[in-house]
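SEQUENCE-TO-STRUCTURE ENTRY
===========================

Backbone structure tokens: a row of integers, each naming the local backbone shape at its residue.

Task: work out the structure tokens from the sequence, keeping to the layout shown below.
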Amino acid sequence: MTKRAFHRLRTRLVLLAVDDSGMSTVEYAIGTIAAAAFGAILYSVVTGDSIVSALTNLVGRALTTNL
């Protein structure tokens, strides 16, 4: 292998090692999945019986307080 061919091969391998094309797509996909999971958890917590009853009691107390 000549010195020039070795240099070209080395340059190409370095470029392949540091090439991050497509990384933003993966990051967006992971972020979207995480946001959807967080939304699902938040929805299940907010629509749960304990939260609904706590909010109902809070609103009821706020409406019946004497000023």
Q: What stands out?
A: Residues 22 and 28 are 10 Å apart (CA to CA). Residues 23-46 form the longest helix (24 residues).
